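ok posting inputs for the adenosine-5'-triphosphate job
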Amino acid sequence: MTSASPAVKGRGVAGLLRVLSGHLRPFGLSVLFAVVNQAAGMSAVVLAAAAAGRALSGAGTAELWPMFWWTLGLTALRAAANWVESWISHELSFRVLAQIRQWLYGAFARIAPGGLVRRRGGDLVVRALRDSESLEIFYAHTSIYIAAALVVTPSAVVAMGSIGGLRAAVALAPWLIAALALPLALRRAGTRHGADLNRALTAMNVEVTDLVHGLRETLSFGGGPDLLARLRAADRRLASAERRQSLRAGLETVAGGIAIGGASLSVLVTGLDGGLPAPALLASVALAGAAFTPITMLLNVTRVWGITSDSADRVFDLLEEPAAVADTGAAALPVLTGPPAVEFDQVVFGYDETRPVLRGVSLTVPAGTTLALAGATGAGKSTLAHLLLRHFDPAAGAVRVGGVDLRDLPLDDLPELVCHVPQEAFLFHDTLRANLELARPGASADDLAHACADARVTPFLERLSDGLDTVVGERGAALSGGERQRVAIARALLRDRPVLVLDESSSQLDALSERELQAALDRVGNGRTTLVIAHRLTTLRHADLVAVLDHGRIADVGGHAELLARCEPYRRLVQAQADAAALLDGRPRPDDDARR
Ligand SMILES: Nc1ncnc2c1ncn2[C@@H]1O[C@H](COP(=O)(O)OP(=O)(O)OP(=O)(O)O)[C@@H](O)[C@H]1O
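and the output
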């Protein structure tokens, strides 16, 4: 998933054309049919006008019928070419867009999750969907119309020369140039308007995404009016960006219309002045209008060029965004005969250079044991776990699994060694079975049953109406927090990797749930090397070792009882827990007997 590095470099048109260079055959065919379409359409109009001129000059039906049939044939050819052009060009654009989207998904995977924390979800959705959709106009229309206009427009001027004479051709050419001049003159404004519109739309999308995800919190804290005010402001910005864009686009349309009128009038005056016969005069005037077809079609799409080019920049920016970690390792996975040891060796790390979070952490999780990380909030526990999952690389020092520095392994190989159970596991809006099979596609009924039993999913599974085929709702909304965590543990059991990183839920549990969860954790940790970010005393007591992180340094490592006796920061941590007093006093908690 991390590969698929795009072959595009450069922004805007350069990037767009570079992508197109991989699809030259369908592009060439689209241009060919666009030329046939436009040339046939123009010829049909000119021929019909010439026929009308001849009829007015008293020509007989015998002379007019062949012109009629030619006009009909050219119209039919135009229709057929139009259909084929539209078919091939859209096929081309969908193919290119599918490729770009694949690259975008690859980019998400490459920069995730380290790089994604800096980005808003709504912004990424706009880039993956709307921005890449905007490029459709370029691949299905703009690029093809530019190429066709380069062929058809000069041909129209030459045709004008042969029908209406040199003076008519000279009268037409400046208007054709004038039609392109205004959009070219307004190009900078168009680019700015496109960027403004995209920015406003992204801001709107981000607000709406936040609204959907945070509605419960917003309403319960009475933030509804503020939120509505923010949405209204985003709406106003969007409307004003759209207004500027459409005012400029309208101006360009008007300019195109004036140029067509001016060209027809100039050719008419020149023809009349030169004493052109009626058929040639009518054909010239018709051609003066028809010659604008390629340019009009081009102008229709270049009106949104600012949006297209800005979208291209945004897509290519994302494609070129460097990964949070460099995927340069080529070492083979360590050959394991059992769970490997995990070692943090003098690890230094900070999310930005000015503020170190880990300040020389050296810590070993012996093979096959469970080490619980304890520490005050912000001490760096999750950060240490991030490094073991290679969401980031240390600035100094090394993280090793089975003696191999993680940076020496290809990124795609790491999931073979390490499995992550996050604090809030993401559950897809799908059945429980599909959510579990994510960890082991095609898992047998037995595999699923064992994992569910070991992770203590079975007790609540029996209460669900459709068992494993129950749809768990958006992000698993149909399950409780504790149930979601047990599903996450079942996934880890199905995944069955030798090293486990477990970010324990910090939510308080009742005694029964606590016992169930601990049983599930014991089962998943069995036979694995486990690093657990501990939030519960039960976990600290059950762990083989506890490491105390204090302001990015290891304050002490040992068993729970040892640390209580000798490590002041640890004593303070334990005391801070809701039931610490009972523990220190030796007063048994309701479930203590069962665990000691
Ligand atoms: N993505 C990030 N970007 C910048 N700073 C971060 C990021 N994630 C964490 N931090 C900072 O790094 C420090 C350590 O955070 P970390 O999440 O590792 O602490 P923790 O010990 O796991 O805390 P908790 O128990 O509250 O989860 C904190 O000061 C935090 O604000």
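notes: The domain at 342-595 is CATH 3.40.50.300 (Rossmann fold). DSSP finds 22 helices and ten strands in the chain.
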